[in-house]
């Protein structure tokens, strides 16, 4: 009996080591996958604050919490199982689906650019919504739809790094990446939008340095939120454009990707001291140009159908 107990304990210890090794493997894979998707994560963090600008300050954190819950639902209930199924059964479908999502991001970004240039934008629709709950629901819904595309890109990048792994490992890594990135992104967003409240707190504290810092935060927040709104719009077109460029390359149309890559490398080599930053910047600008062009085409098509629809309604 003692010998059997010792053997059982040895088996338990061996299983524990295997489990610990598997967890380490999953954590390491999640870390690598999360690092590779860092660019899209930054874009996600830049896009989200624009959805709470202009809303009641006491609803900012609850709204961000709703968006975060929607983001988790996107990643874990929809994107993760679909990504695993497509990876196992129809991996050729992943790229076209991502390109459709990228096109939607380009449309969203180009539409915002058109709104700023033309003055005819969704702000009028928002003003017409007098029910705070309806306005909040509209903003949360828009943020979750945009998050869905960005989350799909994040999960696709993570999945691409898991080729050859078991489906259990893939699922565990994708879940870990999804949860970790959601907490990080929306935690940062919550800090950003409540920074003015922290500034007010500091401004009321004794001590000249704290008060000066607090007043600076309060005065600087409107400019920061406007800047984040612009960055968010730019992020939509450069991420969407990048998805389309990579998708075209995957289907054998790599000319645009080569042009952007060669231009980025040339500029980076011209100024080696900041070569990496310049390469990223040129790549982002090239992707944004493509994204803006694609988005503008979609905006024109959608606006044409919108006008036709109104015309038919008026005739009826």
List keywords for this structure.
316 residues; mainly alpha
Explain what this protein looks like in three dimensions:
There is one protein chain. The protein has 316 residues and is mainly alpha-helical. It is 86% helix and 0% strand. It contains eleven helices and no strands. It has helices spanning 2-36, 38-47, 60-89, 94-118, 123-128, 132-160, 167-193, 195-203, 208-250, 255-270, 275-315. α6 (132-160) packs across α7. It is globular and about 65 Å long.
Offer a concise description of the structure.
With 316 residues, this protein is mainly alpha-helical.
Terminal Cα separation, in Å?
89 Å
Which word captures the global form?
globular
Output the helix-strand order.
Answer: HHHHHHHHHHH
Radius of gyration: 24 Å
User: Helical segment tally?
Assistant: 11
Low-pLDDT residue intervals, each spanning 5 or more residues: 1-6, 8-23, 312-316
| Portion in strands | under 5%
* Helix amount: over 70%
Task: Summarize the helices and strands and which ones pair or pack.
Layout: H1 2-36, H2 38-47, H3 60-89, H4 94-118, H5 123-128, H6 132-160, H7 167-193, H8 195-203, H9 208-250, H10 255-270, H11 275-315
Helix pairs in contact: 1-6, 1-7, 2-6, 2-7, 2-9, 3-6, 3-7, 4-6, 4-9, 4-11, 6-7, 8-9, 9-11, 10-11
């Amino acid at each position: 009996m003692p010998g059997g107990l010792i053997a059982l304990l040895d088996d338990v210890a061996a299983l524990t080591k295997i489990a610990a090794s598997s967890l380490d493997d999953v954590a390491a894979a999640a870390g690598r996958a999360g690092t590779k998707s860092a660019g899209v994560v930054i874009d996600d963090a830049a896009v989200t604050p624009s959805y709470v600008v202009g809303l009641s300050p006491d609803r900012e954190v609850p709204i961000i919490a709703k968006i975060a819950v929607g983001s988790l639902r996107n990643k874990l209930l929809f994107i993760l199982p679909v990504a695993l199924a497509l990876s196992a059964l129809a991996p050729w479908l992943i790229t076209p689906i991502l390109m459709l999502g990228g096109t939607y991001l380009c449309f969203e970004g180009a539409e915002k650019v058109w709104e700023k240039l033309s003055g005819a934008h969704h702000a009028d629709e928002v003003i017409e919504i007098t029910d705070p709950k309806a306005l909040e629901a509209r903003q949360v819904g828009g943020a979750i739809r945009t998050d869905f595309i960005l989350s799909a890109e994040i999960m696709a990048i993570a999945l691409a790094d898991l080729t050859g792994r078991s489906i259990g490992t893939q699922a565990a890594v994708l879940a870990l990446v999804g949860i970790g990135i959601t907490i990080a992104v929306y935690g940062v967003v919550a800090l950003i939008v409540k920074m003015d409240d922290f500034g007010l707190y500091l401004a009321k504290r004794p001590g000249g340095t704290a008060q000066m810092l607090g007043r600076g935060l309060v005065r600087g927040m409107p400019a920061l939120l406007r800047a984040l709104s612009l960055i968010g719009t730019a992020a939509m077109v450069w991420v969407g454009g990048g998805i389309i460029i990579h998708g075209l390359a995957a289907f054998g149309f790599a000319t645009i990707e080569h042009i952007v890559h060669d231009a980025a490398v040339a500029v980076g080599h011209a100024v080696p001291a900041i070569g990496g930053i310049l390469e990223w910047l040129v790549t982002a600008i090239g992707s944004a140009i493509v994204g803006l062009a694609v988005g503008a085409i979609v905006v024109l098509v959608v606006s044409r159908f919108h006008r036709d629809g109104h015309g038919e309604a008026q005739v009826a």
